[in-house]
UniProtKB/TrEMBL annotation:
Chain ranges of the STAS domain: 1-99
Gene3D superfamilies: STAS domain
Pfam name, any one: STAS_2
Source organism per UniProt: Micromonospora carbonacea
UniProt xrefs under SUPFAM superfamilies: SpoIIaa-like
Alphabetized InterPro entries for the sequence: MlaB-like_STAS (IPR058548), STAS_dom (IPR002645), STAS_dom_sf (IPR036513)
Region feature Disordered, mapped onto this chain: 106-151
Identification of the protein by name: Anti-anti-sigma factor
Lineage: Bacteria, Bacillati, Actinomycetota, Actinomycetes, Micromonosporales
């Protein structure tokens, strides 16, 4: 009979990491830093992207991997202060629906509701095909092609 694995308690409450470059070229070095960081079993890891100007698919996959590893250890990964371009990339990848993305709303021009960016909910109106009609489409369904684009 096997015994269930005991959960290891978090040893430190919070670790903050500032990332300035976040793409495939720097992932080996970044991965080594996060391996050492996760060995400390933090309760929360905050990745500060305020100085980061570029993020690619490999970095998004890396964030998802770190999130998975932290979740298994009862920890939380938070992304903080991505610039508007990176925030759009994270939203396109739906990363903001998986983990908290925190922005400084005073800098973004909206002093209300500081904290995590809420994921989009509901339906969106997108241009439809022919006649200039508009039809609702499920949010996050991507680009809708007009009938002329199919040919």
């Amino acid at each position: 009979m096997t015994t269930p694995l005991a959960r290891r308690e978090c040893t430190i409450p919070l670790v903050e990491v500032a990332v300035t470059e976040f793409d495939l070229a720097c992932l080996p070095e970044t991965g080594a830093v996060f391996d050492r960081l996760l060995a400390l079993r933090p309760a929360q890891v905050v990745v500060d992207l305020s100085a980061c100007r570029h993020i690619d698919a490999a970095a998004i996959g890396f964030l998802l991997d770190v999130h998975r590893r932290l979740t298994r250890a009862d920890g939380v990964l938070v992304v903080r202060e991505p610039n508007p371009r990176i925030r759009r990339i994270l939203q396109s990848a739906r990363l903001d629906q998986v983990l908290p993305v925190v922005v400084d709303d005073a800098a973004a021009g909206s002093p209300e509701q500081p904290g995590p960016v809420a994921p989009p909910v509901g339906r969106a109106v997108v241009p439809g095909g022919g006649g200039g009609s508009r039809r609702p489409a499920p949010a996050g369904q991507g680009r809708v092609r007009r009938s002329a684009e199919w040919a």
